[in-house]
Amino acid sequence: MKHKLVPVAAALLTALASHNVAAESATDILTDGWEVHGYGSMNFRFNEDLQSFDSELGKPDYRTAGTSGKSANQIEFVLKKHTEFANGVYSDFVTRTEYGNGDSFYYTSSGAEKTNTVAQLEVKEAYVALGNLPYLGDGTEIWAGRRFLNRAAGILSGEFWKQSSGMGAGFETNLSSGHKTGFAVVAADPEAGFEDRPNDGERTTVTSFDLYYYGVKALGGSFDFDAKFMTRADEKLPRVDSADDGFGVSVTYNRDYYGFDGWSQTAIAYGEGLGSNRGVNFGGWSGDWLEDSKSLFITSYGVLNINNNWQLGTEFTYWAPENMDWGATGNATDEVTRYIFAARPTYKVNDNFRWEFTGSYAVEEVNGGQWGRKDKATDFYTLEAASVFTVNADYFGRPQIKPYVTWVGTNDEAAAGAIGITEAGEKDQFVFGVHAEIWF
């Protein structure tokens, strides 16, 4: 009987051994799953006539701050499929789907949204990333697809001053010193999305070659360095003097709140030609600058933790573009200088409620007579008060529902119309609203 069991035992051992070999295969999947993240912003607001309106009150141009986004119902979902393999290699498939960005109408259940082609459901990002490939080494990653690469935005203006947005591919690695280093090629078509395409339908594809080196420890914080070299297919340029190339550079300094408890990010950027939009802000909008366009951009923002109840968010931004030709009346606008200082103190009443106050002062200087301005310098003001109902009363606690009242004003009637003040002859306006927001 024992002799009969020997072949059976041998067969079982062989099967187990072969299973162990298979389990140790380099391409075996160890973990595999989906992550869901996203953003929601629902801004229910009225002007003084109890009317919805299609304006951000100058916020995208560093003229005002506050709860001024015009999107009535903006939703984003980021889906990420992450897979890890036995030999340490991983893969990511990332998609970002967005709806309602830039659409200010209040829709009902009638289904009328399908007749509006603005801000419909769109896939804004879709790319594949592969990491730790054995022939590239640990801490490396390659990617290809449509992406928002290396984004950064001010906390009160909300403007992305750094990004590369478009189709592309790239390589990234973490050096032994811990510094993230990368190279990417990202391209965009300025004509994309237009039914009546300019330039007789010719494509003037713009391409950015990105180099970045992040995480250099110094001066009590860390520095990030970006350089972008841009070019454009020039079969048919928008203007005779349109730029067909350009560059942009930036240095970002990350640390605590200027020596106090909190955090801050300070950056200086410079760009010329196609890189004139804040130096390192590349996308489909990069194709409309002139050969001699250039700009200097400086920003600094962060959050100070004053005590257990008070927090303070601040932002200072300075942007000085030259020779941008924004379609000003009369002669081309040779120089525009914008700067804004904004502050948002918040008071935590308890874990689920806080008071929030926002104030800003901005100045825009242009050549005399441009855009119908009476003065070379125009002042803009914002005051806002809000009560915030939330699950977490921290400065960035979300989700939240925020009833608010905002006052915006300027010293120039032509500028008032430019930022969306609707009452003719008035230089200021109140806005009343309830803003719901969630990050997840």
Automatic annotation (TrEMBL):
Q: Please give one Gene Ontology molecular function term for this protein.
A: porin activity
Q: How does it sit in the membrane?
A: Multi-pass membrane protein
User: One Pfam annotation, family name?
Assistant: LamB
Entry GO CC = cell outer membrane; pore complex
Q: Which residues form the signal peptide?
A: 1-22
Record keywords, A-Z: Cell outer membrane, Ion transport, Membrane, Porin, Signal, Transmembrane, Transmembrane beta strand, Transport
On the tree of life, the source organism's domain of life is: Bacteria
Where does the record say this protein resides? Answer: Cell outer membrane
Indicate what this protein is called per its UniProt record: Putative maltoporin
In its UniProt entry, the species of origin is given as Photobacterium gaetbulicola Gung47
- From which lineage does this chain's organism come? Bacteria, Pseudomonadati, Pseudomonadota, Gammaproteobacteria, Vibrionales
